[in-house]
Design brief:
- It is built from 23 helices and 20 strands.
- The protein is α/β, with parallel strands linked by helices.
- A six-stranded parallel beta sheet has the order 11-10-9-12-13-14, with helices on both faces. Strands 4-5-7-6 form a four-stranded parallel beta sheet. A four-stranded parallel beta sheet has the order 17-18-20-19, with helices on both faces.
- The termini are far apart.
């Protein structure tokens, strides 16, 4: 006689087979059969109780970004389900696998306008790569297994809606998940395409290597390739840390969340080796006349961001290895030397503010303290806004560390939930979240979750009482400031009241004392730093060179605002090195 098992328990065992060891959500009546199953399996899979379903969904997306494994979240019927959308869209737009389990009223109550009943399947159609409602108890483990396969295969969100009655039903204990059959695809590039790319690199006078997340695991190869061809390196924001900031050839990032040398180099390149990225602002910040070599595992991206001369459908690391093996070493060019000088000037200018004791504080001393207490493998979940600009400029990272933010969806409130995910997935590593006060306010209730699970996350808040990123956009479009000033709060005191160790910082001495106390935390720490409401220097619109069409009066005004008189126009380095 065949043994039986509760359908919900069989489904949870499928999650375990796929390596899921924790998931996020809030119970509800329509999800209680799954809660029962999680109770039965609590020795193998940990339920993380968040205080808002959005926090759980963002944390699941961050889990996937940080680990490469599927993140899992859930919400009950109606409001629990709709609260998940922000995190699910973040996963969709940053192309990571997430499974969302959605509660539904009992099968017998469906289609009767029952309490909290929604027609949930159409709601999730746009955000998902797989979207099914379970129709029988026997289907439940199978559908969840299929959902996980599709999430991995398509790097997206899979949604499974579960009528609550089904999880309690007994089914034959015969279902075997397909987790053991899963294999990552092997993308071997065509050597003919590689050789065509080499021809362009050989002929280039101003070649640049632009890298995205696709080079994960290939940092060393990317750096060797850049040195081999004397190419400066620029990265996407989401690839922050994959190239060490200590590498003199690393120019940083391009566009608005960017560095000066990143924009200088991309605007002046004559050949761009574009590896493992889908950078959406290429039309505005890349030289459109440059030869373009694109390497990706998704052929639908070829030519999407820039007219492409050579397309290489293949794994980023393997492709770069082949270019190294088959290519021809290039001596340092004037352009390469100019790029190094430009980056050196930029970093020296940034470092000049690191010890500022001005009040309200500048951000540079805050990042000096963050870098000081960071370990060689620290994880930096970063929120969205000016804090993103500051973090890509001032975090001094190496490839052993990890950086995560909400890239394409750019949802505020990302930092704290991603910190939960980072500490749960990597319990032995230091986690430092960095948020603006606007983003922090959106998720601040879940500091209680860090307290509940005794997570030693260090949360840094840059408080300027402003939606600063949007205020700058209003400046750029010549608008009045409206709706961008926000009421200040003492987030350090609030965190203390919620059970964390909170600090409110207004001076350099208070800053150093707070970070000293946060060096080896045994529970969550919140450091609320009151900073000046000042725009990070807009490298996408520098006004520092009269020969670029700016008047001396405009240059003087810009330099006065941003204290930027020591920044050297890239034109001068090109002239100096005859590039």
């Amino acid at each position: 006689m065949t043994d039986t098992i509760k359908s919900g328990v069989a489904m949870v065992k499928v999650l375990e087979d796929w390596g899921v060891d924790h998931l996020y959500g809030i119970p509800g009546g329509s999800f209680n059969s799954t809660m029962d199953a999680l109770f039965e399996e609590q020795a193998k899979i940990k339920y993380i109780q968040v205080r808002h379903e959005e926090t759980g969904a963002i944390a699941a997306a961050a889990d996937a970004k940080l680990t490469g494994k599927i993140g899992v979240t859930f919400g009950s019927a109606g409001p629990g389900a709709t609260h998940l959308f922000n995190g699910l869209y973040d996963a969709k737009m940053d192309h990571v696998p997430v499974l969302a389990l959605i509660g539904q009223v009992a099968a017998s109550a469906m289609n009767t306008d029952f309490f909290q009943e929604l027609n949930e399947n159409p709601m999730f159609a746009d955000v998902s790569v797989y979207n099914r409602t379970v129709m029988t108890p026997e289907q439940l483990p199978h559908v969840v297994d299929q959902a996980i396969r599709q999430a991995y295969a398509k790097n997206g969100v899979a949604v499974v809606t579960i009528p609550v009655s089904m999880g309690w039903e007994d089914i034959p204990d015969t279902y075997v998940s397909t987790a053991h059959n899963y294999r990552k695809p092997n993308y071997e590039p065509d050597v003919k395409d590689v050789d065509e790319a080499i021809k362009l690199l050989d002929a280039a006078k101003r070649p640049v290597l632009y890298v995205g997340q696709g080079i994960r695991g290939g940092s060393d190869v990317a750096q060797k390739l850049a040195e081999f061809y004397s190419m400066p390196i620029v990265s996407s924001v989401l690839a922050k840390g994959l190239i060490p900031d200590s590498n003199p050839a690393y120019m940083g990032t391009a566009a608005r969340v960017a560095s000066k040398p990143g924009n200088d180099i991309m605007a002046n390149a004559d050949t761009i080796l574009f590896v493992g990225s889908d950078f959406p602002f290429a039309a505005y910040f890349f030289n459109q006349a440059a030869k373009f070599i694109q390497v990706d595992i998704d052929s639908s991206k070829f030519g999407k961001r820039h007219t492409t001369d050579v397309s290489i459908h293949g794994d980023a690391k393997r492709t770069m290895e082949l270019i190294l093996e088959r290519g021809h070493q290039k001596a340092e060019t004037g352009f390469y030397k100019a790029a190094l000088a430009d980056a050196k000037n930029w970093h020296e200018w940034l470092a000049g503010f690191a010890d500022s004791d001005r009040t309200p504080l500048r951000v540079e001393p805050v990042y000096k303290e963050i870098n000081r207490i960071a370990d060689e493998d620290t994880i930096f979940p970063t929120d969205v806004g000016n804090v993103t600009i500051d973090s890509v400029r001032f975090l001094d990272m190496n490839p052993k560390q990890k950086f995560t933010t909400s890239g394409w969806f750019a949802t505020m409130g990302y930092g704290l939930p991603a910190g939960l995910a980072a500490q749960l997935s990597y319990p032995k590593r230091k986690v430092i979240t960095i948020s603006g006060d606007g983003g922090w306010a959106m998720a601040s209730q879940d500091i209680v979750t860090e307290v509940k699970y005794k997570l030693p996350v260090v949360n840094v808040i840059l408080s300027n009482d402003s939606f600063g990123f949007i205020k700058a956009e209003q400046d750029d479009t010549h608008q009045s400031h409206y709706g961008v000033d926000i009421e200040g709060a003492d987030w350090g005191a609030a965190a203390t009241a919620l059970g964390a160790k909170g600090f409110t910082v207004r001076t350099l001495a208070e800053l150093k004392a707070a970070f000293k106390a946060a060096e080896n935390p045994d529970g969550p720490v919140v450091i609320d730093v009151k900073i000046a409401d000042e725009r990070p220097i807009p490298v996408e619109g520098l006004v520092i060179d009269t020969e670029a069409g700016h008047s001396q009066a405009d240059v003087d005004a810009f330099n006065k605002t941003y204290e930027s008189s020591d920044l050297v126009p890239f034109r001068k380095y090109l002239e100096e090195f005859n590039a």
